From TrEMBL:
Pfam family, one: I-set
Leader peptide range in chain numbering: 1-22
InterPro entries, alphabetized: Ig-like_dom (IPR007110), Ig-like_dom_sf (IPR036179), Ig-like_fold (IPR013783), Ig_I-set (IPR013098), Ig_sub (IPR003599)
Name the record gives this protein: Ig-like domain-containing protein
Length: 291
């Protein structure tokens, strides 16, 4: 509250006015009149009037909406509007911050301030928008702040090591290693590896190394039967994500199948058999051999 003293000289004509003490209120200041004594006969006079000018100021106040007074949890991709009713005299200067850093209007953000309502709008929020948002109000009488915590939940995402994304070829006896370099989501998803609909479990041959954001599958002593499509699945309450990797194991030819003897003569004989090869689709196909 600011106080200043102003002196006025007023000329008045009064008849009978008792000694008085009164206060006059104006929009922006208060005037206090002190002690007049007059005689019973009318007369004009000059009187020095001292006015105390009081500027009526209020410190800032911030009122958050009910939904903003606790943790706000939203799904990724939606629009979010943070609102606060701000008051004070004179009207405060208002600013927004996220995790202590000032928020400025940009793509995906919009700040609006009216005479009483201040809003921060966030469009198509993603996990990176998670954090603490603060509104600050300041005027000559003081400052005020309020805080809102925003948590953005999102479905899982998976990134496979690009060196094996298009397919992995290993020699028999080597170790098959497939790495999911990034598994993200909020809440953190659970992940699992499978092949042909059967999920892998850790064993002497199979190893699974999980971190909060990645997973590595290792299969030792690879054989031809380990060829096929490997799948990693990540899931949380907001969705399921799968990524596939094709694995081809190169092995020496297996023993020939039953040998058939034909075209026997005194000079020659024809021997025929079948074997198993693996084509690009990792499916067996028959072939035949000769004498």
């Amino acid at each position: 509250m600011l106080l200043s003293i102003v002196t006025f000289i007023m000329q008045c004509t009064l008849t009978l006015v008792p000694q008085c003490h009164c206060t006059k209120y104006f929009e922006d200041f208060v005037v206090i009149f002190h002690g007049f004594e007059f005689s019973t006969s009318p007369r004009s006079f000059l009187h020095v009037l001292t006015c105390y000018s009081v500027n009526l100021t209020d410190a800032p106040k911030i009122d958050l909406g009910v939904s903003m007074k606790s943790l706000m949890t939203v799904k990724a991709g939606v629009n979010v509007c943070l609102e606060a009713v701000v008051s004070g005299k004179p009207f405060p200067k208002v600013s927004w911050k996220k995790n202590g850093n000032e928020v400025v209007p940009a793509d995906g953000f919009k700040i609006t301030t009216t005479r009483s309502l201040c809003t921060l709008e966030l469009y198509s929020v993603q996990r990176k928008e998670t954090g603490e948002y603060s509104i600050f109000a300041e005027n000559p009488s003081g400052s005020k702040s309020a805080h809102v915590k925003l948590k953005v939940l999102e479905a899982p995402t998976i990134v496979i090591d690009p060196t094996v994304k298009e397919g992995l070829t290993v020699k028999a006896g080597d170790t098959i290693v497939i790495t999911a370099t990034s598994i993200l989501g909020k809440p953190p998803p659970k992940s699992a590896w499978s092949k042909g609909g059967k999920y892998f479990k850790p064993s002497d041959i199979v190893q699974i190394e999980d971190t909060p954001t990645s997973s590595i599958l290792s299969v030792k002593y690879a054989t031809r039967k380990d060829s096929g499509e490997y799948t990693i699945t990540a899931s949380n309450p907001f969705g399921i994500k799968e990524e596939n990797v094709r694995v081809k194991v190169l092995d020496v030819p297996g023993p020939p199948g039953p040998i058939e003897v034909s075209n026997v003569s005194s000079e020659k004989v024809t021997l025929s058999w079948s074997c198993c090869l693996w084509d690009e689709m990792l499916k067996p196909s028959a072939c035949s051999g000769g004498s």
